[in-house]
């Protein structure tokens, strides 16, 4: 009998949790959504999320809102309405977003069978999954002969750690744009990105983006084709989390122009030893300056000018902080294939770390910068392209470019506020 009572109590507890859970999940989901909109609006200036009419029930909710996108050049705002239905479960909710009903006829014309689908699945423990699917599209303008065909595309973002970690995936099998005098085709676009928040506006992670082929064919121009384009990037930090290193490598397996192919091409960019605190201050100041520029048309011009001056002062202080801790950046590898031979190069700049006494005496960043420059290209490339030859000829005459056999070479060093290019000294003004 005692055991039976215990099972009855346990069953009642489970039933109570099951009954209470959807209401609790709904309450938490509403708070999470409000928190997300606030964070999005505060973290960037390009668009704002507005939520209105959030009607929460027991098993679900409905709400509507507006996305306000601001043109970064003109400051003009464009508004797009949306609506969402929310289903509450025991441990999480599912949000299904859709455009307002008045757009139905326009969507039916573009997507006659299946509509685009955007969902957000949230969990009580702070994880979320965004999924966005766009069905295949096939459009044709009978009057102009223009057409657009696109394969079904898909995007997903898995967010965890209350927004501090994310895994992003985008798949776009391809699209074709046709016009009477033009054809553009894209094949197999893929993006994978992992992100981990370090502090402030500083994120770590790695990413891979690839595009199998991009082809542009015009009636009056030679056809262009780019095969196997890829970008790989990684940003890491040491155990202490006080500095970050980053590397990005861009590769192109082959480029074809007018039935002539050449490749591969490769370019690497790195920065090492960036002080996290100063880098965060720099990115924050740049963001604030951008916000001030966007608000300049609607706000007080004096206030905007004052904000931009303050941002410039913060940028200067951040650059001095970066320099004091020491860093290096540049292109350690530049390699481009041409029909006449490879173009190779390296460009690197570095700044030493400073003692406390040296930091107090430092007035500008440029003074302690050093670096090296080396670029080599085939002479035949210049000879076969007159427009390039007109630009290089004066540099050869001045001794900035030297000929070594069948190649042209540029070598330079940066030190003591001067750039030495093949023995020609060029004084440089201070940057900060």
UniProtKB/TrEMBL annotation:
Q: Which InterPro entries match?
A: DUF945
Protein name, please? DUF945 family protein
Lineage, please? Bacteria, Pseudomonadati, Pseudomonadota, Gammaproteobacteria, Pseudomonadales
């Amino acid at each position: 009998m005692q055991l039976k009572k215990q099972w009855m109590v346990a069953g009642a507890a489970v039933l109570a949790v099951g009954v209470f859970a959807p209401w609790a999940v709904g309450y938490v989901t509403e708070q999470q959504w409000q928190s997300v909109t606030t964070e999005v609006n505060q973290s960037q200036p390009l668009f704002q999320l507005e939520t209105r009419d959030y009607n929460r029930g027991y098993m679900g909710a409905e709400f509507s809102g507006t996305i306000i996108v601001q043109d970064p050049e003109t400051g003009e705002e464009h508004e797009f309405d949306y609506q969402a239905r929310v289903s509450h479960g025991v441990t999480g909710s599912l949000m299904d977003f859709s455009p307002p009903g008045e757009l139905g006829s326009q969507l039916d014309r573009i997507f006659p069978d299946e509509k685009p689908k955007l969902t957000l699945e949230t969990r009580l423990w702070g994880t979320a999954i965004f999924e966005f699917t766009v069905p295949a599209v096939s459009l044709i303008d009978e009057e102009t002969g223009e057409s657009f065909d696109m394969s079904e595309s898909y995007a997903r973002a898995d967010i965890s750690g209350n927004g501090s970690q994310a895994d992003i995936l985008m798949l776009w099998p391809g699209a074709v744009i046709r016009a009477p005098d033009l054809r553009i085709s894209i094949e197999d676009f893929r993006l994978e990105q992992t992100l981990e928040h370090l502090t402030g506006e500083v994120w770590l992670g790695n990413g891979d983006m690839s595009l199998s082929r991009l082809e542009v064919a015009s009636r009056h121009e030679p056809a262009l084709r780019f095969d196997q384009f890829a970008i790989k990037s990684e940003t890491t930090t040491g155990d202490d989390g006080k500095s970050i290193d980053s590397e990005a490598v861009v590769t192109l397996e082959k480029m074809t122009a007018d039935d002539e192919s050449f490749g591969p091409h490769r370019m690497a960019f790195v920065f090492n030893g960036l002080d996290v605190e100063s880098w965060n201050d720099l990115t924050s100041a740049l963001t604030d300056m951008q916000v001030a520029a966007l608000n300049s048309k609607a706000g007080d011009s004096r206030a905007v000018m004052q904000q931009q001056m303050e941002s410039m002062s913060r940028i200067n202080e951040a650059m001095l902080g970066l320099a004091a801790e020491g860093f290096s950046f540049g292109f350690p590898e530049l390699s481009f294939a041409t029909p006449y031979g490879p173009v190779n190069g390296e460009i690197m700049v570095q700044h030493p770390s400073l003692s406390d006494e040296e930091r107090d005496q430092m007035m500008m960043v440029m003074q302690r910068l050093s670096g090296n420059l080396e670029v080599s290209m085939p002479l035949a490339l210049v000879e076969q392209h007159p427009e390039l030859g007109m630009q290089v000829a004066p540099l050869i005459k001045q001794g900035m470019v030297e000929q070594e056999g069948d190649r042209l070479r540029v070598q330079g060093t940066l030190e003591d506020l001067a750039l030495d290019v093949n023995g020609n000294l060029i004084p440089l003004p201070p940057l900060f």
